[in-house]
Every structure is written in C-alpha cells, then in structure tokens.
UniProtKB/TrEMBL annotation:
<keyword id="KW-0378">Hydrolase</keyword>
<dbReference type="Pfam" id="PF02541">
    <property type="entry name" value="Ppx-GppA"/>
</dbReference>
<dbReference type="InterPro" id="IPR043129">
    <property type="entry name" value="ATPase_NBD"/>
</dbReference>
<dbReference type="InterPro" id="IPR003695">
    <property type="entry name" value="Ppx_GppA_N"/>
</dbReference>
<feature type="domain" description="Ppx/GppA phosphatase N-terminal">
    <location>
        <begin position="29"/>
        <end position="282"/>
    </location>
</feature>
<dbReference type="InterPro" id="IPR050273">
    <property type="entry name" value="GppA/Ppx_hydrolase"/>
</dbReference>
<dbReference type="GO" id="GO:0008894">
    <property type="term" value="F:guanosine-5'-triphosphate,3'-diphosphate diphosphatase activity"/>
</dbReference>
<protein>
    <submittedName>
        <fullName>Guanosine-5'-triphosphate,3'-diphosphate pyrophosphatase</fullName>
        <ecNumber>3.6.1.40</ecNumber>
    </submittedName>
</protein>
Length: 297
C-alpha cells in the first residue's frame, strides 16, 4: 500500500510518500519520498489576511508538482491538509477550489483542534501512564495537549507561531492565555514532561548534539541553544550553522514559544519524537484503507 500526505503550513509545505508493509503481524511505514518547500504563506496572511498573487502562483505550481509525484508513485490514497495560514486567509477557500478544479487535488482546510488530533495519532508510542504536555509549534499556531494516565484531559490551539512571533503579530493577551491554560490544567500535578513537535524543536534537538538513542532535551539546554543561535546574525546562521534560510530566522522565536510553555508547566524536560502532522495523516489513511483490496507494492 502506498500513501501520500501533504502538510500545507504557514512556513513551509511538505509532501511525504510512504509504503506500508506487513511482516508477521507487524505494520511498517517506510518513507519513499519526502519534500519540503519553503513557501511562507503565513508572511502574507498575517500581514494582509490574503495570500499574495505571487505566492498563489507558486503554490499552484507546487501543487501541480506534488500531484505529479503522487501519480508517478501510483499512490493508493492521499490527504492534503492546510493549517493556520490557509484557514485565516480571505482567499484561501478560493485557491483551494481552483486547485481542485484545475489540478484535481483535494485540499482540506483544518482547524487547530483537528490539527492537534492528527498529530496526536502519531504520538501514542511516546505516551504512558505519566503526565505530559504536548507542544506543537507551527508558523501560525501552537497546539497544546495535556495527557494523564494515557488519556487526553485538555487541548487547545493558540494563535502563537514562529512566523507570527517573527513579525511581532502576537498580542500579549494571547501569550497570557496560553500560560493560564497550562497552569489551570496542570496545576499541582506531579512533575510533568513535555513533548515537543515541529521542525524548529527538531533542529534545536539536533544542534544539542544528543547522544545516540537519546530522545529528550533539558530546558537549560534549549536555553543554551537559543543563546548560541542569538550570538549569530541571520546570515551567519545560514552560512556558518548551515540552517535553511526559512529556518534561520524563525528558530529563535520558536524556541521562545517552547520555553514559555515549559516554564508555565514547570517542566524541565522535553521529549522530541520525529513525528508531525504528516505522520498523523498517514495513520488516518492507513486506518481508512487497511481492509481494502489494494494492489501490492
């Protein structure tokens, strides 16, 4: 079985094509193709509430390229989901309809709660009986989920994201509301561990030079990496640290969001699994198609 997932975010757009195999009852998801294109739709939307004509043209070209790859790989099923930037754009639905009519690619604009639910599907392997705060930071929004004894007890999406923070588009009241939400739902709970997802925390984790098989990073280490990044100019982060241009500017504001959530939760440790929205989409697609008679791969 071959499946494809497209995540249309505020800072970048990702395509992953996966083959699903079965071996003695074990299900394996093997990545066949992964592409990330730095089309920053959030920069338009958070300024003007619209996707510009220039980025609209680029977006449509990218969707054509992704549709070609989906067809070339003879994918059995796919999902394309758009998050914060597209859902807040005044012309987002219009663009989605144009892509559907001209390319034949169906895009779903999802809300923050569904976005969080989809990411959660890929997280269950990291959840046990203890308490956890899951923090997913995107370009336009941050999704928070709180777990206790393998049950999700609270969830909320906030208009706090790395591109918004970069553009100074986050009111103080929104920052405060995120802190209040965390404090109200965690309260006097036993020491809580955070789980961080998103491209920026993955890069921060990578920059920390973790030991082999280590899956977490300490609060103090995140602060240390943040200060290290701030010691370089934007150009130096690209040329000396080899960061992508669309990562080099947002990684610092993103680190501040993760740190704010951890501080509010009084947490000193963050697990960083290599999962995201695309992995949750794969879970949905597999569940939908697992009992169908699909050609072998």
């Amino acid at each position: 079985m071959r499946l494809a997932a497209v995540d249309i975010g505020s800072n970048a757009i990702r395509l992953q094509i996966t083959t699903v195999t079965h071996n003695e009852g074990e299900i394996n998801f093997k990545k066949l193709e992964y592409l990330r294109f730095p089309l920053r739709l959030g920069m338009d939307v958070f300024h003007t509430r619209r996707i510009s004509d220039k980025n609209k043209r680029k977006f449509i070209k990218l969707m054509k390229a992704f549709k070609l790859l989906i067809d070339l790989y003879e994918v059995d099923d796919y999902m394309v989901c758009a998050t914060s930037a597209m859902r807040e754009s005044e012309n987002g639905k219009e663009i989605v309809e144009e892509v559907k009519e001209d390319i034949g690619l169906k895009i779903q604009i999802i809300d923050g709660n569904l976005e969080a639910e989809l990411i959660n599907l890929a997280l269950w392997a990291h959840i046990d009986e203890k308490s956890y705060l899951h923090v997913d930071v995107g370009g336009g929004s941050t999704e928070l989920n709180i777990y206790s004894k393998k049950q999700k007890i609270a969830s909320k999406s906030f208009k706090i994201g790395s591109v918004r923070a970069l553009e100074d588009k986050i009111p103080l009241s929104v920052w405060k509301s995120m802190g209040v939400f965390i404090e109200e739902h965690i309260g006097k709970r036993e020491k809580i561990t955070c789980i961080g997802t998103g491209g920026n925390i993955s890069k921060i984790f990578e920059l920390s030079n973790p030991r082999k098989n280590k899956t977490f990073i300490q609060l103090d280490k995140i602060k240390e990496i943040q200060e290290y990044l701030e010691s370089f100019s934007y150009e130096e982060r690209i040329n000396k640290l080899n960061l992508n241009p669309d990562r080099a500017d947002v990684i610092i504001p993103a680190s501040k969001i993760y740190l704010a959530a951890m501080t509010a939760a009084n947490s000193t440790k963050m697990i960083v699994p290599d999962v995201g929205l695309k992995d949750g989409l794969m879970q949905v697609l597999y569940k939908k198609n697992k009992n169908k008679k699909i050609k072998s791969t």
